[in-house]
């Protein structure tokens, strides 16, 4: 919901130095959780490991019921779940042409839900360079780079979790992260095959999907 105020505020809408007064407003956003990768990053960066552990245990208990809170591998299981679910989420974004706009770690949910999509947009026609965020001059968050940015953010999550993992768990977590690309591509392919009505497995399915996307780009 949007609550508009009668008070004026100074805004630089396009971040180009042209500051103007406009009516103030507050946007109310709802989600089942607002815990993000950045929520753990900031605690790890400041060395507040006890608080980080308490927060992580709370998140697991509240939102990951399949992971026993007293399991010594709970943080590894948590990371593995977030990696696979993030891959699923990014594939879903791509399947409908959704560009988030600002895919930094503070805007990526630990529950792998879509939050904080301020300058988002949907492609009218296929274009991997599509950027809805006018302030993203370097096209870091262009739609065709979202999957890569997702993996980058997960690497930052792993970095934040490492102080809580033993050497064996760190090695396994790194292997989990390495599998992100394969998981994403598998889900991406599955979604696009469903769009095309392709049944079963055929070695030419992936070629057909890539060919149709290329044709769409040329149209």
From TrEMBL:
<dbReference type="Pfam" id="PF02696">
    <property type="entry name" value="SelO"/>
</dbReference>
<dbReference type="GO" id="GO:0016779">
    <property type="term" value="F:nucleotidyltransferase activity"/>
</dbReference>
<protein>
    <recommendedName>
        <fullName>Selenoprotein O</fullName>
    </recommendedName>
</protein>
<keyword id="KW-0067">ATP-binding</keyword>
<keyword id="KW-0460">Magnesium</keyword>
<keyword id="KW-0548">Nucleotidyltransferase</keyword>
<keyword id="KW-0808">Transferase</keyword>
<comment type="similarity">
    <text>Belongs to the SELO family.</text>
</comment>
<dbReference type="GO" id="GO:0046872">
    <property type="term" value="F:metal ion binding"/>
</dbReference>
<dbReference type="InterPro" id="IPR003846">
    <property type="entry name" value="SelO"/>
</dbReference>
<keyword id="KW-0547">Nucleotide-binding</keyword>
<keyword id="KW-0479">Metal-binding</keyword>
<dbReference type="GO" id="GO:0005524">
    <property type="term" value="F:ATP binding"/>
</dbReference>
């Amino acid at each position: 919901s949007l609550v508009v105020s009668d008070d004026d505020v100074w805004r630089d809408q396009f971040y180009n130095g042209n500051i103007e007064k406009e009516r103030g407003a507050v946007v109310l956003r709802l989600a089942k959780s607002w815990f993000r990768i950045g929520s753990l990053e900031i605690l790890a960066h400041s060395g507040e490991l006890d608080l980080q552990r308490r927060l992580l245990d709370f998140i697991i208990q509240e939102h990951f019921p399949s992971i026993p809170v007293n399991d010594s591998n709970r943080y590894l299981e948590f990371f593995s779940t977030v990696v696979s679910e993030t891959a699923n989420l990014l594939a879903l974004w791509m399947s409908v042409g959704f560009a988030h706009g600002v895919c930094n770690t503070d805007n990526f949910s630990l529950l792998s839900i879509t939050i904080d999509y301020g300058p988002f947009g949907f492609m009218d026609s296929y274009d991997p360079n599509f950027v809805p965020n006018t302030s993203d001059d370097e096209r870091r968050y262009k739609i065709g780079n979202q999957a890569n940015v997702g993996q980058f953010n997960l690497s930052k999550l792993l970095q934040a979790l490492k102080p809580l993992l033993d050497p064996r768990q760190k090695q396994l977590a790194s292997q989990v992260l390495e599998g992100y690309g394969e998981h994403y591509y598998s889900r991406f392919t599955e979604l696009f095959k469903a769009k095309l009505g392709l049944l079963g497995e055929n070695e030419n399915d992936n070629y057909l999907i890539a060919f149709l996307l290329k044709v769409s780009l040329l149209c």
